[in-house]
Write a structure and sequence with these properties.
The chain is an alpha/beta fold. The protein is built from 9 helices and 16 strands. The strands form 3 sheets. Strands 1, 2, 3, 4, 5, 6, 7, 8, 10, 13 and 14 form an 11-stranded mixed sheet that branches. Strands 9-16-15 form a 3-stranded mixed sheet, with no helix packed on it. A two-stranded antiparallel sheet has the order 11-12. Strand 5 and strand 6 form a beta hairpin. Helix 3 runs parallel beside helix 9, helix 5 crosses helix 7 and helix 7 crosses helix 8. Bound molecules: 2-acetamido-2-deoxy-beta-D-glucopyranose (6 copies).
Length: about 375
């Protein structure tokens, strides 16, 4: 009897607790919906190189919840556009998102030195755990290469929603605790948000890593020979990053794809002109710290185009700078002398600087094969 009563009371308490929780959630949602500007106290994991990696700092940061631009629906034939384009147009103006993972000490160097020669900036979706793991062990390993520091950072947004989103965020957090190499913002990590990711990084760089000489900006499915990259950059006449450099797989004389079935579909409502300025394929390109700053500066007054590599080209053109072609960058695939040769022959990869695209296992194998002291090439 008393047990029964206690259970009843307990049940009542549970009810009360759940009710209170729902109320709190409701109020929180309410403040999101009805307050343009509000203060959120969040936990941001900022792991400094010089501090123990488990440091958790509580920040009070404020941000303006970005609102859907309802007038976008007035654009000609808006309803006939695919959903992702409509979504893009509604949120095109949004450029500020809270940071979930940060490492503001990344470029301060292991012993307080500030000499980062090459910063590897790799766009990676939270799901791509295996790719990040293999990159950390191979070409993106942080190291002193021929006297020059290579550092690495992955750029990520969030994917999915609810529990799945939380699970993937937790994964990134664990990785970050171990490697200190992830920048994550709370926006949807979709194909059409890659330009946003790029701009958020450039903004971060201006503040946290302005002295890096050069950057490799690329995807997590490329094979990059970072040894060769450092050699190439060191041999430049101006190798301190204070001059313009933007080089990769140069793409000229193309324009927006107007077929609505294409992944790259860009209707006139998004980009009026039928041409794009010259740009470098987004799989991977090299740029100087100077050029990164110029692009960031330009980006502040150029509306977002969802194709990130084209957007870089637009920013360069506006600054009166030109992208260049580098023969060692093969983002459109590597061509081989004949179909009978082994396309994974390490000798084809010894002299290039970047190839698109590699699976994690092939990446791991190739990195080891090109470093084999017994490898003999060119007869
Ligand atoms: C566009 O949309 C807004 C909001 O839906 C509406 O108030 C306005 O009348 C529409 N027309 C123009 C030309 O902005
Ligand atoms: C909202 O969309 C309309 C139509 O494209 C555009 O003219 C306007 O500048 C947009 N507003 C913002 C804040 O981006
Ligand atoms: C809008 O749709 C009409 C009818 O399908 C078409 O004739 C017109 O060219 C379209 N306009 C734009 C700007 O896409
Ligand atoms: C950093 O300092 C530690 C201790 O002084 C030293 O052992 C280590 O080699 C230094 N690392 C570099 C990259 O200079
Ligand atoms: C970009 O991310 C924002 C924030 O999560 C989201 O509202 C928007 O729909 C995304 N845009 C696209 C085109 O996916
Ligand atoms: C940034 O852009 C403004 C014009 O938009 C220009 O006056 C200024 O010199 C630029 N700064 C750099 C560092 O490029």
């Amino acid at each position: 009897m008393s047990r029964f009563l206690r259970r009843k009371i307990l049940r009542g308490k549970t009810f009360l607790l759940v009710g209170t929780l729902l109320m709190v959630i409701y109020l929180y949602e309410y403040s999101l919906d009805h307050n343009a500007v509000h203060l959120k106290v969040g936990v941001r994991r900022d792991v400094n190189q010089n501090e123990p990696p488990t440091t958790e700092t509580t920040y009070a940061f404020s941000w303006t919840q970005c609102r859907q631009n309802m007038s976008a629906a007035n654009i000609t034939n808006f309803t006939s556009l695919p959903d992702n384009i409509q979504n893009f147009l509604y949120y095109r103006h949004c450029r500020h998102f809270p940071m979930l993972l940060d490492n503001s000490g990344k470029c301060r160097g292991p012993n307080g030195s500030s000499e980062v020669f090459l910063l590897l900036v790799i766009k990676s979706s939270p799901m791509n755990y295996e790719r990040r793991e293999v990159l950390r062990k191979t070409w993106a390993k942080e190291r002193l290469q021929n006297g020059a520091w290579i550092r690495r950072i992955f750029l990520s947004g969030t994917v999915e929603a609810g529990f799945e989103k939380e699970r993937l965020n937790k994964l990134l957090e664990l990785e970050h605790r171990e490697y200190n190499d992830i920048l994550q913002w709370d926006f949807d990590d979709s194909f059409f948000n890659l330009t946003l990711k790029q701009i958020l990084f450039l903004q971060w760089m201006e503040k946290n890593c302005p002295q890096a000489h050069f950057l490799l900006n690329g995807d997590d499915d490329v094979f990059a020979n970072t040894d060769n990259m450092v050699e190439y950059l060191q041999n430049l006449q101006d190798n301190n990053g204070n001059k313009h450099l933007f080089t990769g797989h140069l793409i000229n004389n193309v324009g927006p794809i107007r077929y609505s079935w294409s992944k790259y579909f860009i209707p006139v409502q998004v980009h009026q002109s039928d041409t794009y300025p010259a740009y470098c394929g987004g799989g991977g390109f090299l740029l100087s710290g100077f050029t990164a700053k110029v692009i960031y500066n330009m980006s502040q007054s150029i509306t977002i185009l969802p194709i990130d590599d084209v957007y870089m080209g637009i920013c360069l053109a506006k600054a009166g700078l030109r992208p260049e072609s580098h023969m060692g960058v093969k983002t459109a695939g590597h061509s081989f002398p004949s179909s009978r040769v082994d396309s994974y022959d390490p000798c084809f990869y010894k002299d290039i600087i970047l190839v698109h695209r590699f699976l994690p296992d092939q990446m791991y194998l190739m990195w080891h094969r090109i470093h084999d002291p017994n490898l003999i090439c060119g007869v």
